[in-house]
Amino acid sequence: MQTAVIGLARVASRYRWTVCALLFFATVINYMDRQILGLLAPLLQHDIGWTQVQYGRIVIAFSAFYAVGLLCFGRIVDWLGTRISYALAMLIWSLAAVLHAAVGSVTGFAMVRALLGIGEGGNFPAAIKATAEWFPRRERALATGIFNSGANVGAVFAPAIIPPLALAFGWRAAFVIIGAVGIVWLAVWFALYRSADPSSVEEAQDEVDALDAANVNARAPGWGVLIRKRQTWAFLIGKFLTDPVWWFYLFWLPKWLNESRGMDMQHIGLPLVCIYAMTTVGSIGGGWLSSALLRAGWSVNAARKTAMLICACCVLPIAFVSQVDNLWGAVAIVGLAAAAHQGWSANLFTTASDLFPKRALGAVVGIGGMAGSIGAVLFSEVIGQVLQRTGHYWVLFAIGALAYLVALAVMQMLTPRMAPAKLDA
C-alpha cells in the first residue's frame, strides 16, 4: 500500500507541471485577446471612425465587466470546480474575441469587449484554485509565478503577431485567428486536465489542510461570510493598492517613452520588450524565492512576507526614474519595478491559498481581483488629472513606488501571523 501511495505521489509530481503549463498558455491567450484591440486601434479608428472619447468608453466597458467577471467567476469556480469553470471562462472570452470580427460600430465593440471582460475574469480565480489543488504549499508561489509570467509573454508576443496578421488578412481575420487559439486550448484542456486527488499531493498537513479535510463536503461560503474576515480584507487591500500600478505600466509606458524620451513607434518596441522580458524573470523569481524559503524551513508567514518586502523595496528606485537622463538606465529601473510587481503578485496570489480553504479560494481571488480592477479605474482618473494639470510623470511614479510598502504594512496589521480564516466547524 505504501509503495502505491509513493508511486501515485510521483506521478502527480510530474503531472502538476503539465497543469502549470496549461495555466501558463491560458494566461498568454488571455493577454493576447486583451491587447488586440489596442494594437489594432489605428486600423479600427480609420474603418469605423470612433472618437477618442468613444474609444475610451469601449476600454471602460472591458474594465468594468472584467471586474464583474472576476467577482462572479470566483463563485462559479467554487461551485463548479476548476475543470468546468475554467473551460467555461475560456469559451466565453474566445467567442467574444471572435465576435469582434462581426461588429462594425462603437456600440458593437463595447458589447463584445464587455463579454470579453466577463470571460477573462475567470482566468485568475480558476488558475489560483488549480494551483492550490495540485501543488504543495512550498511550490505554490513558484507555480503561480510561472503561469503568471504568461501575462508578460502575451504582452511581448501580441505586438509581434497581431499587426502582421491584420496587415496580411485584415483586422477581422486577426480577431478570428487569435480567438480560435483559445478554442484549441480548450480541446487540450479537456483532453489533459483531471481533478486533483488530495491524497496524491505529497505534503504535511497544516491548519488550512486540516480544515479542508474536516469539512470536505461543506458548501462554499458566500460573499457575506468572506467579506467579514480580516484575511479577505488583507488580500483585497493588497490588490486594490498594487494592481493599479501594473495597469499604469501596461497602458502608460509607451506614452511615457514617447513624451519623456522622444521615442516614436519605430523605436519604442525594443525598450518595451526588454521591460516585459524582465517582468517574466521577476514573476518566476519572486515565486521561487518564497518557495525556497519554505523549503529551508521558514514559516509561511515569514517566507511570503519576506519575499513581498524584497519586491516592495525593488520598486522604490522608480520614484527617481524621471531624473535619469540615460534611456537604458531608465528602462532598467522601470523593468526592475515591473519585475518586482510580478514577483509581488505571485506571492500575493499565493497568500489567498495560505489564508483560506480551497472551497473558498475562487471567491476570495475574485473579490480581490475586483478590488484591483476598481483601483485601476480610479487610478486611471488620477493619472489623467495629474498629466493634464502638470504634464509630469514623477508624481505617478512616486505613488507607484510607495504603494507596495503601504499595502504590506496594512496586510501585516490585518494578518500579523497569517492565521487561516475560520470558516468551518
From TrEMBL:
Superkingdom field: Bacteria
Cell compartments where the protein resides: Membrane
InterPro entries: MFS, MFS_dom, MFS_Na/Anion_cotransporter, MFS_trans_sf
Keyword Membrane in record: yes
Domain Major facilitator superfamily (MFS) profile: 19-419
Transmembrane segments: 15-33, 54-77, 83-103, 141-162, 168-192, 233-253, 268-290, 302-321, 361-380, 392-414
Protein name: Hexuronate transporter
